Amino acid sequence: MGSLIECRDLWKVYRLGDVQVQALRGVTVDIQRGEFLAIMGASGSGKSTLMNIIGCLDSPTSGTCRLSDRDIGSLDSDALAEVRNREIGFIFQNFNLIPRTSALENVQLPLFYRGLPLREQRARAAEALARVGLAGREQHYPAQLSGGQQQRVAIARALVSTPSILLADEPTGNLDTESSREIMAVLKGLNRDEGITVLVVTHEADIAAYMSREIIIKDGQIVTDRQKNLVIG
Ligand SMILES: Nc1ncnc2c1ncn2[C@@H]1O[C@H](COP(=O)(O)OP(=O)(O)OP(=O)(O)O)[C@@H](O)[C@H]1O
Ligand SMILES: [Mg+2]
């Protein structure tokens, strides 16, 4: 068995008229099942671009990315969506919850799209909310929840499809220190207790302190890739 994620010489070049931006310039990285990994780097260095390729939201200009031994570069958009829906959960900085829709319904949504029976949608959504410590908040609208709670709803929504990988792009970027700690503890628990592979893009060194491996990207290239002794267990 190979690695869970295998990226080889990934390039991403955006062309806007005459201007060409090399967002990724030859990124090679292997990620094993069960890793808890921080991706760091300055604004514009290519972190989101890399995450989006790993997450099957975007494809590289050249290079290959394999996910569970499948070359995702060779898949058409339907097949890509299928892999994404089955394997990957996304968490974003701004939560991306639907307003005036309850926490439970927000979490149900991926299951609704899959056509699961309503009763099963509700049961699984409630269970996912309980896993992130939000039992009892099912009927709250996003506006009736704190930032940290909203982000936990987003984590539950990512979890409800039982992904093997969680990709979080600056999940604590809009949160205060205490809520950030809470979110990292939830992600850490999912990694430790359920073996979910977690990749977190972050600017903050104290957030990266939770992770056992740190990758630093600069100008589209990996400049540091190191295992760490955990500061926060
Ligand atoms: N759709 C696009 N079209 C053109 N250029 C893009 C596009 N998306 C990203 N870029 C450029 O690619 C580079 C990398 O962008 P990316 O979003 O990956 O950076 P980032 O490391 O996530 O930054 P931040 O920390 O600000 O989120 C940047 O120079 C950006 O301007
Ligand atoms: Mg980004």
Short description:
34% of the residues lie in helices and 28% in strands. It is of the alpha/beta class and 233 residues long.
**How would you name the oligomeric state of the polypeptide chains in this document?**
single chain
Q: Helix proportion of residues, in percent?
A: 25-40%
Major sheet attributes:
6 strands, mixed
Order of helices and strands: EEEHEEHEHHHEHEHEE
Do you know the CATH architecture? 3-Layer(aba) Sandwich
What is the name of the CATH class? Alpha Beta
Poorly predicted sequence stretches spanning 5 or more consecutive residues = none
Structural account:
The chain has 233 residues and is an alpha/beta fold. It has one domain: 3-Layer(aba) Sandwich (Rossmann fold). It is built from 7 helices and 10 strands. It has helices spanning 47-54, 77-87, 103-113, 118-131, 147-159, 177-194, 205-208, and strands at residues 5-16, 19-31, 36-40, 62-67, 70-71, 88-92, 165-169, 197-201, 213-218, 221-227. The strands form 2 sheets. A 6-stranded mixed β-sheet has the order 6-7-8-3-9-10, sandwiched between helices. A 4-stranded antiparallel β-sheet has the order 2-1-4-5, covered by helices on one side. Strand 9 (213-218) and strand 10 (221-227) form a beta hairpin. Helix 3 (103-113) runs parallel beside helix 5 (147-159) and helix 5 (147-159) runs parallel beside helix 6. The protein starts with a strand and ends in a 6-residue tail after the last strand. The structure holds adenosine-5'-triphosphate and magnesium ion. Adenosine-5'-triphosphate binds next to strand 1, strand 2 and helix 1.
